[in-house]
Amino acid sequence: MTASRDISRRSLVKAGAAATAVLGAPGLLLAQAKPVKIGLVHPVSGGLAYSGAQARLGAVMAIDEINAAGGIKAMGGAKLEGLLSDSQSRPEVGVSEVERLQQEGVSAYIGCFASGIALPATQAAAKYNTPFLIDVGASDTIVNRGLKNVFRLMPGFNKSVDDAIVALGEINKAANNVAKTAVLVHEESEFGTGTAKLLAGKLPGINITVAEMIKHANPTRDFSNVALRIKGLKPDLVIMSNYQNEYVLLARTLHQQKVDLAAMYSVLGGGFNYKLVQELPDVAQNMMDFNLWFNPRSARAQDMKKRVEAKGSLFTFEVYMAYSTVRLYADALQRAATADKEKVIAALESSTFSDHFLPYGPTKFVNGQNQGGRGTLQQATKTDIEVVWPNEFASTKAVFPRPKMS
After folding, report:
1. How far apart are CA 41 and CA 298, in angstroms?
2. Would residue 180 be called left, alpha or beta, if left means φ above 0 and alpha means ψ between -120 and 50 degrees?
3. CA atoms within 13 A on the CB side of 204
4. Can you say whether the dihedral through the CA atoms of 69, 73, 77, 82 is positive or negative?
5. How would CATH label the architecture of 36-155+298-374?
6. Fold observed for domain 158-291+377-389
7. Alpha-carbon distances of 158 from 51, 63, 161, 212, 240, rounded to whole Å
8. Pick from 355, 391, 8: nearest CA to 153
9. Is the pLDDT of residue 90 over 60?
């Protein structure tokens, strides 16, 4: 009997110790917080593959960092789970991917890089009232259709063109208005066509005449005839609005054919990035682009740039825009303390998000568009890209007009 009592006593002590251990680690008792699924809709194949892959890199980096820091604390440490999607650079595939991800239980979407994909994709998501946060997509139609589920941190092409015109006007005036004529070259979709139309309407306001507008297909494999046409028109400026591949090919063709210009200027130029500088330094030198950019004076931006480069990638705008957009969504989840779609949309509508290193004013969404978003004017050297406007973020002065070609 004594032995039996001892065994029972020992059993109770062990059971009590085990219970204490469990109670001391409440995570073992409570169910793990349910992960928040985010559909990352990017073109990682097809003509936009490079830009799409860069955007995916930035989004995944943000997700990993948020999870490593403890997840969404207001939701019990819920982790973010990125569901990867490939729109194949085609609008109809973007829509089918939205539908597929909806069946997989996503709480939000982030994408789509291209306006032509974002327009139908956001419309598809609106049927389910699922938040769709645009990382890159310039068309203002994206946020002007009254879709309550759509939010964009970056400026659209109306704001970008307005600011690009001011920047060009100031730089041209400082150079005694050397630039008087321009040829606009743009890709055929919503992004290029819309941007070029806005530019054509505003350039006369800074005393620059549009000599011609030239539209090209996606893809375009040869710009020789376009370059010859431009050479014959003898404009002071060529202003481009196109995606990565065509942007680079046109710039290279104009350089090869020695088309002399006061400047090659672009607005939201898809191929103006460190890849251009690295691969074609002679072509890139002195090119100018008004675009999304990081604050070059931010130590946090410079740190992330080093981390991206350590992965063997380049710190292009797609990376940090997708990164910042994921953080915007995480901030909304934290303030809503839930992934409930209605409550997250309400949190986004009232957002004052500031966890970024972009040269932006205060975040304030009106009809899904951040009023604080703004771009900067960059200029390439043979080895780097510098901000030249506005002065508060500039790292050097603009070279304008560029030296004559030899």
Report:
1. 29
2. alpha
3. 6
4. negative
5. 3-Layer(aba) Sandwich (3.40)
6. Rossmann fold (3.40.50)
7. 22, 31, 5, 21, 16
8. 355
9. yes
The whole-number pLDDT of residue 82 equals 98
Tens digit of pLDDT for each residue in 342-389? Answer: 999 999 999 999 999 999 999 999 999 999 999 999 999 999 999 999
Domain ranges in the chain are 36-155+298-374, 158-291+377-389
Local structure of residue 401 (DSSP, 8 states)? S
**341 touches 302 (CB < 8 A):** no
Q: pLDDT value at position 31? A: 66
Q: Give the HSE-up count for residue 119: Cα atoms under 13 Å, Cβ half-sphere.
A: 13
Rounded to 5 degrees, φ, ψ at 268 are: 55, 40
> What are the tokens at 340?
């409930």
Is 30 buried (19+), middle (13-18) or exposed (0-12) by CB count in 10 A? exposed
List the strands of the sheet with 237-241, edge to edge: 209-216, 181-187, 237-241, 263-267, 288-291, 376-380, 385-389
Joined tokens for residue 276: 């251009």
CA distance 152 to 292: 13
Determine what percent of the chain falls in helix, strand and coil, rounding each to the nearest 5.
45, 15, 35
To the nearest 10°, report the CA torsion of 134, 140, 142, 146: 120
| Mean pLDDT score, 96-107 | 98
Average pLDDT across the chain, whole number: 93
- The partner residues of 265 in beta bridges, in order of sequence, read 239, 288
Spatial distance between the Cα atoms of 212 and 201, rounded to a whole number of angstroms: 13
CB contact set of 148 (below 8 Å; sequence gap of 6+): 126, 129, 345, 368
Largest CA distance in the chain: 110
Of 393, 391, 392, 373, nearest to 159 by C-alpha is: 373
Give the residues across from 379 on adjacent strands: 288, 386
Is residue 308 predicted with pLDDT exceeding 70?
Answer: yes
Confidence of residue 405 (pLDDT cuts 50, 70, 90): confident
**36-155+298-374 and 158-291+377-389: identical CATH topology:** yes
Q: In which region does residue 88 sit, left (phi positive, over 0), alpha (psi from -120 to 50) or beta (all else)? A: left
Burial class (CB in 10 A: 0-12, 13-18, 19+), 142: buried
Are 51 and 270 in contact by the 8 Å Cβ rule? The answer is yes
